[in-house]
Specification:
The protein is an alpha/beta fold. The chain folds into two domains: 54 residues, Urease, subunit C, domain 1, CATH 2.30.40; 218 residues, Alpha-Beta Barrel (TIM Barrel). Helix content is 33%, strand content 23%. The protein is built from eleven helices and 13 strands. It has a six-stranded parallel beta sheet. Strands 1, 2, 3, 4 and 5 form a five-stranded mixed beta sheet that branches. Strands 7-8 form a two-stranded antiparallel sheet. The relative contact order is 0.14.
């Protein structure tokens, strides 16, 4: 007995798009079959998806929910929480959101996770997970906690090589501490998510543009520029090469610099072949949404192509 059969939709798979029936049992896709192949199967629900696109639930790996943003005048704004953002995600076909648990030197990694849980447990409209976001000067004993957190389902660590803004302190992680984090990630199959910019150049350009009175958003690409990212990420790669088994992912701002975005991949292709093996790793394990899902009728009436919501469970997400 199946829980759901989605019949006759244009199903998007890694191999392409095909007219198929999709069978779901529990939290897993049990079968993707040619139309009519499942005619003899019984299911609790059947959805006629003819003329619609059927896609797997999306995973957004970088969101900031219930997150404070401090304006230059000191005003603090807070982004919407997972109850609101989760519903918006579901309407668009995204079923899992990956936010951040803020790991700081003055509290344990477990405390950081539990603190973030207060924003999510019982409040999220869809499934969620966290990256651990490192901060400056992590104590040595935190490396043991990091190893335990990776094994508990939190294998990704966000690392900044800059404080990003002149007014912000404590975000940048020194390369000595990055080295220690890489050792733990390599030993326990974790993944480093790197925001790579040269802090000296970033702060120099902020000071230069402020002095020149060029403080509009259109000048931001001069601050967070391609040279800054290139210098920093090459340094990160050299460090990762010295720790066999390190897996890293590059995250940068680009700030609308289309030229930089085009040149970025080409720059990486110029790196030695051994660098490419660094990219990989696994996503955090998803936590199941506690709130009732949106009524399927609402989802079906949403944007064109949205057939329904089906979350990715913990085990499935680990296999991605």
């Amino acid at each position: 007995m199946l829980d759901l059969i989605v019949r006759g939709g244009d199903v998007v798979t890694p191999q392409g798009v095909a007219r198929c029936d999709v069978a779901i049992k529990g939290e897993a896709i049990a079968a993707v079959a040619a139309p009519g192949t499942l005619a003899g199967a019984t299911a609790t629900r059947v959805i006629d998806a003819a003329g619609k696109i059927v896609i797997p639930g999306g995973i957004d790996p970088h969101v900031h929910m219930h997150h404070p943003w401090i304006l230059p005048d000191g005003t603090t704004l807070t982004t919407k929480g997972p109850d609101h953002v989760g519903q918006a995600a579901l309407w668009g076909g995204t079923t899992t959101l990956i936010d951040f648990a803020y790991w700081r030197s003055d509290r344990s990694i477990r405390a950081a996770i539990e603190s973030r849980d207060q924003d999510f447990v019982g409040k999220s409209s869809c499934d969620w997970a966290y990256h651990l976001m490192a901060s400056a000067d992590p104590p040595a004993h935190h490396m043991g906690e990091l190893a335990e957190a990776i094994q508990a389902g939190y294998p990704t660590v966000k690392i900044f090589t800059t404080n990003i803004l002149p007014s912000r302190q404590g975000r940048m992680v020194d390369f000595g501490d990055i080295w220690e984090i890489f050792k733990v990630l390599a030993a326990h199959q974790g993944l480093g998510v790197i925001h790579a910019e040269d802090n000296d150049l970033v702060m120099h350009m902020y000071a230069k543009l402020i002095a020149e009175g060029r403080v509009g958003f259109e000048n931001l690409a001069e601050v967070h520029n391609q040279l800054s990212e290139d210098l920093s990420f090459r340094r990160v790669i050299r460090l990762a090469e010295r720790v066999p088994g390190t897996a890293i992912e590059r995250r940068d701002r680009r700030c609308g610099d289309r030229r930089g975005a085009r040149q970025g991949p080409a720059g990486l292709r110029r790196e030695p072949a051994s660098v490419h093996a660094l990219f990989g790793g696994r996503l955090p394990a998803a936590k199941r949404a506690d709130l009732p899902h949106l009524p399927l009728a609402q989802v079906e009436a949403g944007p064109e192509g949205a057939v329904g919501r089906h979350a990715v469970g913990r085990d499935q997400l680990r296999r991605h």
